[in-house]
């Protein structure tokens, strides 16, 4: 680049960012509000929806835009949704996988698709950090991306795909629909060390979990809400086997476990395998023990789609949280209060869950002129 072009480009960026910032500060007009009512599927109103004033408040603080791709790739959100709907028919397990993927991406250095990057010379990939060892769904993101590249090459960011895909999965799981702003751009870094240090651990006690969520701007209510996503999917036995056989080195089970529930869990996760992996639950994908067929238990499955979230909170009330960290929600005044609330009020939970997911999806996003649009989600452009 010659020295002459550089200042011109810089100026262009400045003008561009100014223009963009004017656009952001424009109050949401009646027309936009109207548009997005039209795009919210009717069924999302059936059990708890987000109030419009809440959405407007939320959006006025966001650097992103509603329907960012309206001109550049008008069918972007529809392509994400139809791909998910098609793949879901043969692989229902993609639902919990993609919700988890969005959480893991956004919680670590923001929603910048850093979770998708493969190992490379300058990349220390989050996906290979031990706590992320069981993540799935990367192939689904790749399929969505290639469909989008076909429709509008180089336009839609992987970071937007991750949160939009999670949103559609929440709906498929029986949860609420929530509108999302778009215009996230992809980062060019991945942060494996931060995953290990800052992702809430399945063994964390209440104060650690609270601190971890608080560092991302979530209060205790929002934390209890987001953990409701543990309602679906599978949990690998290694994340809680210590509670069944040798809790805190006592050679006894976790005394807070309901005895009947303890037997159920023990029948699914046997001790032999437990002992081989109990010392370090996070090392599965690198240690020889990963060669043993991994044991896992299925949480709320498809049969209870209408109960999104409910089983989770009701289980906690009965002392039947599978992960130690989950059951910890019953140990705090405030967190216990919200567990009770959500267990008895599904529409309140749906409404709160929608808001919390919107907030999660906007964490530390990169917008123009930062970041890039990757062509392949696993590689920096
Ligand atoms: C239980 O855990 C403690 C501490 O981690 C360990 O020293 C002990 O060997 C374990 N017991 C069994 C039976 O593995």
Question: What does this protein look like?
Answer:
The chain is an all-alpha fold and 381 residues long. It has a domain at 200-359: Peroxidase, domain 2 (Orthogonal Bundle), CATH 1.10.420.10. The chain is built from 17 helices and 4 strands. It has a two-stranded antiparallel sheet with strand order 1-2. It has a two-stranded antiparallel ribbon with strand order 3-4. Helix 14 (310-317) crosses helix 16 (333-344). The radius of gyration is 22 Å and the shape is globular. The structure holds 2-acetamido-2-deoxy-beta-D-glucopyranose. The site of 2-acetamido-2-deoxy-beta-D-glucopyranose has 4 residues, from loops. One of its GO terms (cellular component) is extracellular region. Disulfide bonds join 73-152, 106-111, 158-377, 237-269.
Main features:
single chain, 381 residues, mainly alpha, two-stranded antiparallel ribbon, 4 strands, binds 2-acetamido-2-deoxy-beta-D-glucopyranose, lactoperoxidase activity, heme binding, Haem_peroxidase_sf
CATH class identity of the domain at 200-359: Mainly Alpha
The count of helical stretches stands at 17
Strand content: under 5%
Overall SS class: mainly alpha
Distance between the termini: 18 Å
């Amino acid at each position: 680049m010659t020295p002459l072009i550089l200042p011109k480009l810089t100026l262009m960026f400045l003008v561009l960012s100014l223009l963009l910032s004017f656009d952001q500060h424009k109050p949401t007009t009646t027309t936009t509000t109207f548009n997005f009512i039209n795009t919210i599927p009717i069924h999302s109103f059936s059990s708890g929806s987000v109030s419009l004033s809440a959405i407007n408040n939320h959006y006025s603080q966001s650097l992103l835009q509603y329907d960012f791709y309206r001109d550049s790739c008008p069918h972007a959100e529809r392509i994400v949704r139809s791909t998910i709907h098609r793949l879901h028919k043969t692989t229902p397990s993609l639902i919990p996988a993609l919700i988890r993927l969005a959480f893991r991406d956004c919680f670590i250095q923001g929603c910048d698709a850093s979770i998708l990057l493969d190992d490379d010379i300058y990349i220390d990939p989050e996906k290979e950090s031990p706590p992320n060892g069981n993540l799935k769904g990367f192939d689904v993101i790749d399929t969505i991306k290639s469909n989008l590249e076909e429709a509008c090459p180089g336009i839609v960011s992987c970071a937007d795909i991750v949160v939009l895909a999670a949103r559609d999965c929440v709906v498929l799981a029986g949860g609420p629909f929530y509108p999302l702003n778009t215009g996230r751009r992809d980062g060019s870094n991945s942060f494996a060390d931060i995953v290990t240090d800052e992702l809430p651990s399945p063994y964390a006690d209440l104060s650690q979990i609270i601190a971890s969520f608080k560092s991302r701007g979530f209060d205790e209510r929002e934390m209890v809400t987001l953990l409701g996503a543990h309602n679906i999917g599978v949990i690998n036995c290694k994340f809680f086997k210590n509670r069944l056989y040798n809790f805190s080195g006592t050679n006894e089970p976790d005394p807070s476990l309901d005895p009947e529930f303890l037997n159920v869990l023990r029948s699914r996760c046997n001790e032999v395998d437990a002992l081989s992996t109990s010392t370090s639950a996070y090392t599965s994908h690198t240690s020889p023990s990963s060669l043993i067929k991994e044991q896992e238990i299925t949480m709320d499955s498809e049969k209870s789609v209408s109960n999104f979230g409910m089983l989770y909170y009701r289980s906690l009330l009965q002392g039947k949280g599978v992960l130690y960290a989950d059951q910890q929600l019953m140990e705090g005044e405030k967190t216990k209060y919200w567990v009770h609330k959500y267990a008895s009020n599904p529409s309140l939970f749906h409404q709160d869950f929608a808001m919390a997911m919107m907030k999660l999806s906007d964490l530390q996003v990169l917008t123009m002129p930062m970041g890039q649009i990757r062509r392949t989600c696993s590689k920096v452009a």
